[in-house]
Amino acid sequence: MNKYELALVVSAKLEDEERDAVVEKAKGFITRYNGVITEVEEWGKKRLAYEIQKMHEGFYYFIHFEADTTCPNELEREMRIMDNVLRYLVVRKEA
C-alpha cells in the first residue's frame, strides 16, 4: 500500500455542519476504495491565491491515507463531481 495525501479546499460559505459533512464524505470515499486514513489536518479558513467561483476564501483540509494504486483515481473521479469542493489534489507521498 502506498501513502497519499488529499488536499481539499471547501467553500467558506458553508456552515460548520455542512463543511464537516463534505469532509466526512471525502473520508468515506477513501475507505470505500479500501484506503486507511492515518491523519486529518484542518488548516482552517485561508485566503485563496485567486478567485474561484466568485469566492476569495476557503477552508483547507489535508487527509493523509494509505491505499492501493487504484484508490486515487477513483477518489479524484468522485471529488470532481462533489458540490462545495473548490479544489482538490491527491499526491503520492514518498515512503
Account of the protein in words:
With 95 residues, the protein is of the alpha+beta class. The protein is 28% helix and 51% strand. The chain has 2 helices and 4 strands. The protein has helices at residues 16-32, 71-80; strands at 2-11, 36-52, 55-67, 85-92. It is globular, with a radius of gyration of 13 Å. The model has no long low-confidence stretch (mean pLDDT 93).
In short:
With about 100 residues, the protein is of the alpha+beta class. The chain has helices spanning about 15-30, 70-80; strands at about 1-10, 35-50, 55-65, 85-90.
Which helices and strands appear, and what pairs or packs with what?
Blueprint: E1 2-11, H1 16-32, E2 36-52, E3 55-67, H2 71-80, E4 85-92
Antiparallel strand pairs: 1-3, 1-4, 2-3
Count helical runs: 2
Subunit organisation of the chains? single chain
- Count of strand segments: 4
The share of residues in extended strands comes to over 45%
How far apart lie the N and C ends? Answer: 10 Å
Low-confidence stretches: none
What order do the helices and strands follow?
EHEEHE
Give the rounded overall mean pLDDT: 93
